[in-house]
Model the fold of this input.
Amino acid sequence: MKNAWQGYKMVLVSLALMSLLNGCAYLHTQRPLSVNFNKTEVGTKEGRASSYSILWLVAWGNAGTKAAAQEGHITVIESEDTEILAVLMGCYTRMTTVVYGN
Done:
C-alpha cells in the first residue's frame, strides 16, 4: 500500500509541474511574417488557410500562402501572419496562414 501511495504522489507532483509549463494545456498565438511593421499595408481583404494535426499521428490541410490568397480572393498580397492553436501539448494543433491584400 505504501508503494502505491508513493506512485500516486509522483503522478500528482508530475502533473503539478506540467501545469506550470507555459502553454502546455492551451496555446493560441499569432505572429506577423513581416519585419517592416511601420511600412506594412494590410489591404482590404483577408484570406485564411489551415492545416491540422491530431495526436502527432495524422495531419491534413494546406496552410500555404497561395491557398490563403485563393480563399480570400486576393491577387496582391500586402502582409502575412501565422496563427498557431495547440491543445494539450499538441494533441490537437491548427496552424493557419493569414494573408491580407487586395
Q: What stands out?
A: Helices lie at 2-19, 65-71. The mean pLDDT is 84.
